[in-house]
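Onboarding guide, step 5: your first structure request.
Type a short instruction followed by the sequence, for example:

Predict the 3D structure of this protein.
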Amino acid sequence: MVSLSEICSPSITPPTTATTSHHMKPIQLSDISRYRSELMGAAIIMIMLFHVPVPRADLFFGLKRMGNIGVDMFLFLSGIGLWFSWAKATAADNMPVPPQMAAKRYRQRIMQFYRRRFQRIYPTWLVVACLYYMPQHLGVTLGHIDWTDMTLDILFNWNFWTRDELTFWYIPTIMALYLLSPYYMTLLQRDRSYQWLAVVPMVWCVMVQYVTPIHDAVGHIEIFWSRVPIFFLGINCGEAIRRRDTLSPAMLPLIAVLFAMAFGTSLWLEQMKHGLFPLFLERMLYIPFAVTLIILLAMAFRRSPRWILTAMAFCGGISLEIYLIHVQFILNKIIPLHIHYWPTFLLTLVITLPAAKLLQKLVQLIMGQLYSRHTGTAKKQS
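The system replies with structure tokens like these:
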């Protein structure tokens, strides 16, 4: 019986025939890690293309809608990155210790994992959330301000979980997945058979859609449930990429066919049947679509000019900031100009990139100042 590890992390020897080995090289899975920033840059550009409005009757509508796959690419790459980080931490902490000490060490490792993950996202999120939610809440009559709602929105984007507010939905989603991931990765280290747990959220998505009591309770956050499988799959595949496994070049036609099937079906659904099918169905298509697209893009980046790699890596390096500011603070101000799709996108991009970089620098400055003060206080107390 073929295991999931053999599917997700094969180390396949290239064909031995002289013709094949001469003309085709193995597919390097390590390129996914090597070009991670470039892949994230491509993903955020797709998301920006998705957010720019276009009329439903336009022939570009379906293709534009598929830019949403950038989110799935982010989650898959995030899962891979988390496995790299977790494997490195556990490899450096493998000395045998008594059970009580081992439990304490495990808790410390998890807390360190959380601290590193949230330090990248949370400070930037707090700055943007304050800039967005405080004017909304404080703009009403002072006596009617819901201070609790405003505080919870700023801290956790609470209205996403309670009312499916999609303004910044990716942030609470990735934070929740960060919270789950150490325990999932611990199970994988104990027994790789646990990687089949990635199938469970796929079944859960069907239950959420069609089992009425479940749908009534948690169906409003379908956009979260349908993205859990691709994140877990990224974690599953992380070890193969970390080991620098390769795929036989004979796999390339299969990858291309699977990509074409998922791409073509998604395009048909969006262009011809938008609004007539449960969205989780397309998100299940996005799983093979995103994985094959990432492999093909990584292969393409090996042969891309340096300027393309530099541009994509730059966008990938500020992808969080781009995501947080490009719609609410920039695109929504450009849409009333009623210019065409591509000018709208390009103008949004030109304004967003320096603004996102400035936001990144600002948050780094603030965090640097806070760290310096904390370090100085700690030294005085010691």
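Each response can be followed by summary notes, for example: Residues 341-381 form the longest helix (41 residues).
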